[in-house]
Amino acid sequence: MPNYSRNFDKPRSNPDAHLASGFLPARILHLHPTRRCNLTCSHCYSASSPHQDSGVNPTLWAQVLPLLRREGYDQVSLSGGEPLLYEGLENLVSSAVDEGFRLTLISNGILLNKTTSQMNKLLKKLDGIAISFDGLAHRHDAIRGRSGVFQHACDAIMVLLDLGLPVAAAISVTHDGIEELPDLVYYLVSLGVTAVQIRPVAAAGRAALTPHSLITSNGDQLRLYLVVKALAVELASRVSVHGDLVPAGALWNQREAYRSLLAHSPMTGSPMPTLLSDLVNPLVITDTASMKPVAFDMHSDFDLGVLDQLSSPSFMHDYRNVGAVKLKELVHQALQSMALISGVVDWYDYLARSSHNSFV
After folding, report:
1. Cα–Cα distance between 144 and 101 in angstroms, integer?
2. Which of 15, 111, 195, 349 is a plausible cystine mate for 202, CB 3.0–4.6 Å?
3. What does the pLDDT read at residue 16?
4. Reduced to 3 states, what is the DSSP secondary structure of residue 241?
5. Residues near 53 by Cβ (< 8 Å), separated by ≥ 6?
6. Which CATH superfamily is domain 23-247+276-312 in?
7. In the predicted model, what is the mean pLDDT of residues 301-311?
8. What integer pLDDT is reported at residue 274 of this predicted model?
């Protein structure tokens, strides 16, 4: 799982600030090539399960990844579903490596307990692997609906470390899980993870239909933000700890990161960004080959189209003149609201939730 966060507590001093594309440190393709999964987690934002059979046609990657590389994207983050269940994974990984993408993957770890030589070869092509966690054993297993999967995830960390691969932990935190977060993080660090990424469970997918014990309130999020900051300081000499929550005021103060998108206006003749990644970052690709800005659960009104359309000569022109204008308005109004919020925000979830509201 890549580090999507930035240190918002310090003034930005990047001499290449004009190259910024949103609040991310890279230009990212977040790929969900399948929603097939060996678990049915109660908080899954993509509602993945063993019963999902859809998946992106594996032959598409060799066609579209070169196009997306030329549009400025430099990192591929593989998620799902469980990406190791995707039948086209080797095609995807090979195409991404051939195009020079930095490549990371997040897994629940079940299939990594007994790796094969073929899987080991594939894993060693990755720049990073993260194992996902939802809490200590009892909570993790309860959320994932199967006993023993916490231990499977921990065992996967050890398998990957034995292969000489750096491993991160990606932690989703529920309302009831904040209190045990420090114990979980310290335990995972003791196993040997090199980085920890922490985010609150979003009210999306299956989580939107589950009890409130999974969803964090505004007060919970402030508490979680402070816990993550404390852990980052305490563990600074051992691992990197990052959280997806940031102060709303800091986002407002760094709004120039969206300069390319916000300046773009085909109606007034403002300069048109050359690259798609100037306008959309991250770009999310779903299991049905739909292209979405920002998040998997972004409202379909904001979809860019489907992968097959990328090679069309008119695609970029049409998107810049219609879709990008809608996204610009969404981001503009969301940023304006940051000046009025005194708490912390998960920015990409905030944009996704806002896309379903009526202010655009």
Report:
1. 31
2. 349
3. 42
4. strand
5. 36
6. Aldolase class I (3.20.20.70)
7. 95
8. 75
